[in-house]
Amino acid sequence: MQTSNPLYTADELCTIIATILHGADNAERRRNEADLTTALQQPPNVGHLVTILCGTPDGTPPTAPAGVRQMAAVLLRKRIFSLWRVLTTEQQHQLRHLLLQRLGDEPTRPVRFAIAHVVTRLAKADANRGGDGWPELQHAIRAAAHDTRVEMRELAMVLLYSFGEVFAEENALSGLAAESVVRGLGDSETVVQAAAVKAAMVLLPTLHEHPAVRNAFLAHLVPTCIGLLESGAATEAKVPLCVSVLDLFEQLFDDLPVKKYGALVQDVAQALMRLMANPQHHPRVRENCGTALGQLATLKPKFVAAPALLEPLVQVCLGLMSEDNTISISDQGSGGVDDEDLDDSDDDVDMLHVTSACMVGCQLLSALATTVPSKAFTAVLLPYISRVTDAPASVDARTRKATMIALACLAEGHASYLRRRVGYVLTVTHGFLCDADPAPREAAAFALSSFCGHLQPEILLHHEKLLPMVVPLLEDTSDLVRRRVAQALDTLCENLQENLDRYVPTLLPAVMAAIPISSLETQCRLCGVLSSMGMAHSAAFASRGPELLEVLRQPFGLKTPETMALRAQATETVGVIGSAMGRAAFAEYYPFFMQEVVANLQTRHAAVREQSFGFLANMCELFREDFAPYLNDSIHCALETITEDRAVYKNKHPLASDGSGDALAAFAAWKDNGGDDDESDEDGGDDAEEIHLRVRTADVEEKSSAVYCVGVFADVMMGQLGEAQTAACWEALTGLDSHYYPNIRSNALIALAKLAKASAGLPAKAMQARSRAAIVAGRTGAADSSGSLVQDVLPLSVRDRIDELLNLLLRTIEEEDAENEVVGAACEAVSIVMDYFGTQCTIDGPDAVMRDVVQLLRGTMPCQRRGNELDDDECSEDDGADNMSYEQYQQLRQQRGDSTSADRAHYLQGKDPFFRRADEAAEAQASAIMAAMAQHQQNGDAAAPPSSQLPSAAALPPWYRLVAPEMVKHGVHLPEDHDGVILDAAAEMLESVAKAYGALLQPYMPYLVPLLAMHADVGTRPPEGLVTAVGTLATVLQAYGSVDANGDGAASPASEQLLAPFVEAAAQLSFSVMAGSDESTARANSAYLLRILVEGCPSFFTQQPAVVPQCFQALWSVVGNEEDEIPEAVDNAVSATCSFVRCLPLPLLPIAQVIPPLMAHLPMKIDKAENPNAVRTLCYLLGNDHAASTAAVSSWLPSVVGAVANVLAAATVEDADKQRLVQQGASVFAQAHPQAWRQQQQGLSDGQRAVLQAWQL
């Protein structure tokens, strides 16, 4: 009778394994896998694996095939701990002897490697039970390293690699390993050198506790590896070795602090620059050198910014960019055909990919531009650019091409520098667009697309110069030039908005004429231009929609691989054109194109499917409730794409390599489900796994588009989505929390926020009304019994989703490894739920959210600490202490927020020392809760204390009660350049919280205002930082004080009381920015800040009248310099002046000097939202309290009447505002003072008088 765990002979186990590896019957294979899993729970069966692998102790060699022996080694590795525990001392000695002997005798390389990992895990098992360190193994490694046989020397390196991996930082062989690896690196055989490099990579972390060995090892390692690169960089066969060495150098760049190893890091960087600069070296080596140097710039930007490194780096980049005529690697492709035919099983597919020299240089220069501080980078790059732009004829065409690309990189990394020099940029670009050689023309068009994307809004003001400069190049003889021109027009048209209308009659025919003469890829770009024109909401473009749709029917019939990219782009373009045309005009085309999109989604072409999801999103937004018949199928298709994993996973661990694909597949599929939990507990590295995944970009972008599409469905359909669909989408999207692709994670977080809104199902205004009512109830003492700030008015299912989502978002923001893009998306998602749910988002108050906001503003969130070399700086925090007295040293430590030992420990744990006391209180409460739970379990239910005696989560005080506001500026870490991704998103999140909670933010304001002031310091912060900080401060103060920028009433006493503590500091900040910054947007925000202050707290200005002239001087420094300012800045300054006139007593103002020039600037130039404030001011001035009642009226009344006529004539002023001006201002004055009104009209132009007559004035 067979037992539940039968014992097998070695031959029987061998047969089972062979069946698993080679059996054709899947059912039989699965039965054998189950039998094997059960069998290996018995130690005697595990012992038979030794026989299969090594033979018998009497010297009989193994007879099993190599594949079976390899799998036996894998299985033995998994069960070695359980076997070791049951062996006697003699048996343990015999097992070690057998494995070492077989390791030397095994002829098959993959099996030999598998045995090596068994040996190292056996060494770990022995060490865990106090073994003698297995001196025979150490002797064997040393002997193998000196062996004359190549395979033995390689085996020595593989054993050292395995030791480093299995023992991790406990490796006791550090001295032997370092010596042997150095010897392996100097070996004459490439396979030994490659294995030695891998061994070095795992050895380095184990040497942290052995500084002497580490320093000696590095002293040999670095020059040896540089020598390997220099000798092998031009040899095809040695490229993989060189790539491994460069991976090692990337690891060194990450591990080595520059304060101690700066000279060594610099030597490596200079060697890599030499390798990159040599055109004789293999392209893959040059590319990876650039990647490593880019990683160095990302990790240690301050170190790279030193002229000794930065200048040669820029020179190398420009040299590479001048080597050929290419712009980017996509020049040769047409639409991802290679992706479709990619053989994922090819381990060397990356070696077949060759990046052009120009692209390598461009990628590195772009990395430098986006990481190195602006001052250092521009100081090095600009002289090179100027030498070419000053005398372009003195250099060759490729150098001119490289110069334009360099200028594009500068725009990408340091846009604020070029935004103030847009005129120069366009002059240079125009010159290169007219170049006789196509390469500089193409580069100029490529750069122009970068300028249009990064130099906004300033560059858009030059549209009258831009479009005539670019459109004629659609007829260029070079297809590549036309393609780049289309790319530039794509970016430009998308942002021109209403200014595009006048260009449609010339631009649209030029685009349509270029399509038939262009390649497929350029046709895709031209369709992209049509999409951007549609996004600009141009009426002229929308009127041409029907004829465009007839043309775009054709690509939907394309089916060949090389044409599918055009079909994909046509799908997107049709959706955008439909949105531009409007629901009624597109309705007749809707069924046809929906049918075609259904056919698209039945294909497996990722790009076509990606754009089809975009089309569905557009149609949902356009047809809304009429999209309902397609909703379920669309969601089903999107969820299928979201949950499908098309990545190909490959184990590239050195010990998993072999020549038998079938065997590896079987090893990967076989899972040991044995019940021995001690295996994983004792193991320092169980499986020989180094999993690499290969995924097509198109597949990832399709999934990202599907996620975005679900978010649009939720946002538009809201309650119509239904609970079942909402739950299905929620489950799928939360499953993407740990997805490897940042864009997918980002889209998923935002889509989840929209799903949370859909689960509530209420219109936004209704939810906001509920939120406000809940605040009122909470503030009047009618809050619920839980003591929350507001009442919970949400259904339980919605509350659960909100709580789950907010926890996910805050956890993402606080994650150490979260990418900046994902953190920014998490902040945006918080803003979405805050804007919709208001105070219902966090009924206990915004304490957790505000903590993250404060930490982000302090620059101490884990995602902000990467690449700023803070850890290097920490080691020198007490530099100079030897020269201080004890009192001075204590004062220094008191002033530094992170200088105490406790704070330093907190910092090293990845936390902000500013919140240390709050964290300690939370930890103490958690410990108390755990102790109470343990006591409850000991006492039993009957003896359990009442719940009132247990620690409560609500009892934990908010962090602002434990942290002093005056400490908020201590220990702040702000990067030299503005981190737009994170800080801008954090600022938007803060604005949303402020709008939701208003005056309830009072406890947090003493922390927020000083931090925002630090970010708005004109002397230390970059222009982009000023824009964000001043704008956010204005919005927060407006929401906090409930300042209604569109209201007529005077400021309330409550508003004045709330704002009073911050008005003076905010006003001085505004003066500082307007006087010290040439960033026009920052000056615009400063003007708006002054407007909020005077509307919210006018008493400050009446009590300190000396400040008023300063305000006018600051505001009119903007208005009087309108030639150099963006129109929005002028409009904001004019509107702020209006508020000063309207909110302060007229005797306090220099009326004669202010009002006439103010009236000359009404209405606003661009910002229509400021026109209502202008109308209110005109009504105020024409009211009975002021008009014709003083002797000073005659000096400013004519300008007011003229402004009335101009406002009534302006097309940019809404009709409702015009009606208000007539009824509450002009008519009131005309009826009260008819003679004065008629008299003032005499000085108007005929056109102005005609306008007044038309309004019966």
In short:
With 1257 residues, this protein is mainly alpha-helical.
Overview of this structure, please?
With 1257 residues, the chain is mainly α. Among the domains are: 9-20 and 37-131; 132-209, no CATH class; 215-305; 319-329 and 365-499, Leucine-rich Repeat Variant; 625-652 and 693-761; 764-775 and 789-863 and 977-996; 1002-1149; 1171-1256, no CATH class. It has 62 helices and two strands. It has a two-stranded antiparallel sheet with strand order 1-2. Helix 35 packs antiparallel against helix 38 (697-717). The longest helix is centred in the last third of the chain and has 24 residues, at 916-939. The relative contact order is 0.04. The model is unreliable at 329-352, 657-687, 780-786, 870-890 and 1188-1192 (pLDDT under 50).
